[in-house]
């Protein structure tokens, strides 16, 4: 019983000795002063279309020029540049993380489902014009992908009730830009 009582007091004695050790180090009379160099931070707003991720206010997929926040439809706008930074270049890879969309690719072609409806043949558009074929769609000259979900997609006529995917092409800005990258692993 006495051994356990002494062991119980041991942590208390150790903690109580810390202020005494700290007081001993302050009594030396030596005071150290650290002087840090001045740090100046300079920044500027990044308004270039090529450099940042863009929050688009209106979608071309509605065909009426209305703002997205005023449209009573579910519209998702995906910025392609963000996906290219991660190394994804084809449409099915870009659509994988979006809610309500199931996308896959195998040797037969792309398989895209919007809210349970297959959207391979007649529900994929480029700049509002239907794109036919089962080929793997590249996003090399695409600025953004707009997805109009739900039955509002009948605006395009020949579609299922799941939605429409519209790929909006890039426009030339006549500014020189260079890009270099490396991927390892």
UniProtKB/TrEMBL annotation:
Residues 69-164 form the TonB-dependent receptor plug domain. It is found in: Cell outer membrane. InterPro entries: Plug_dom (IPR012910), Plug_dom_sf (IPR037066), TonB-dep_rcpt-like (IPR039426). Pfam families: Plug. GO terms for cellular component: cell outer membrane. GO terms for molecular function: siderophore uptake transmembrane transporter activity. It is a multi-pass membrane protein. Keywords: Cell outer membrane, Ion transport, Iron, Iron transport, Membrane, Receptor, Signal, Transmembrane, Transmembrane beta strand, Transport. Transmembrane segments: none annotated. PROSITE patterns: TONB_DEPENDENT_REC_3. PANTHER family: FERRICHROME IRON RECEPTOR-RELATED, FERRICHROME OUTER MEMBRANE TRANSPORTER_PHAGE RECEPTOR. This is TonB-dependent receptor. It comes from Neisseria meningitidis. The lineage of its organism: Bacteria, Pseudomonadati, Pseudomonadota, Betaproteobacteria, Neisseriales.
